[in-house]
Design goal:
Length: 226
């Protein structure tokens, strides 16, 4: 099978997963109850698979779908403020054909990058448990192994940094001592580099902890590595 076909098969498996009872209950309740501003929309309410360019040299990795973002739209970093910030930067740096990601059918196309998350279901308070994290890790490890042109993972936030390290350990590339997360930090595991980036959450972008220039610099570094 082609790389794209294998990634599509993995996506189908991800979407059908019901391994974590707490997360299944939460994502489906959020999808049913909705919020007022999205009351007229149909929510996805299932795990959000990775997406992007199957020949990607870079992987942008987040924590998990947002309750009213990817849990609503079905596509990671789509339909929320974090995604607005991220895809605008991807467009500026040449990874995306447009600066916005609103819905799964909005015409967004990525080149040279794949977007995914450590956890595929929206967790309450954005906090998966260690067991829920570990239940999802095999999906990330398989995704990384299928992205055979991959050279760099951009870990957005400490949770994504830790998840990337754990997934690489599953693939036989554990390192000790554990590299510490930081914005712009880099670690090399086997043939892959991991680059740290503050998460593009409103908490970081509204306070100036993460600026457009800082995110552009990380994505440009990823391009250079890839």
């Amino acid at each position: 099978m082609s790389r794209a076909t294998q990634l599509a098969a993995l996506a189908e498996e991800v979407v059908g997963c019901r391994r974590c009872p707490r997360l299944v209950e939460w994502r489906e309740r959020v999808a049913a109850e909705k919020v007022a501003r999205f009351a007229d929309q149909d929510y996805w309410g299932k795990p959000a698979p990775g997406f992007g360019d199957p020949d990607a040299g870079a992987l942008a990795l987040g924590l998990a779908p947002a309750a009213h973002g990817a849990n609503r739209t079905g596509r990671n970093f789509t339909g929320d403020r974090s995604g607005d910030f991220l895809y605008a930067a991807m467009h500026r740096t040449g990874f995306a054909n447009q600066p916005t990601s609103i819905a799964a059918d909005d015409g967004l196309a990525l080149s040279g990058i794949w977007v995914s998350a450590v956890n595929r279901c929206a967790p309450p308070e954005n906090k998966p448990s260690p067991v829920e994290r570990d239940n999802c890790l095999p999906f990330l490890a398989r995704e990384i192994s299928l992205l055979t042109e991959l050279h760099v993972i951009v870990a957005m936030g400490s949770f994504a940094w830790d998840g990337a390290l754990r997934a690489m350990a599953v693939l036989g590339h554990a390192v000790k001592p554990k590299p510490r997360f930081g914005h712009g930090a880099e670690a090399i595991l086997g043939s892959l580099s991991i680059v740290g980036c503050f998460h593009p959450s409103q908490q970081n972008t509204f306070t100036g902890k993460l600026t457009p220039a800082m995110l552009d610099a990380v994505l440009t570094r990823a391009q250079n590595i890839a």
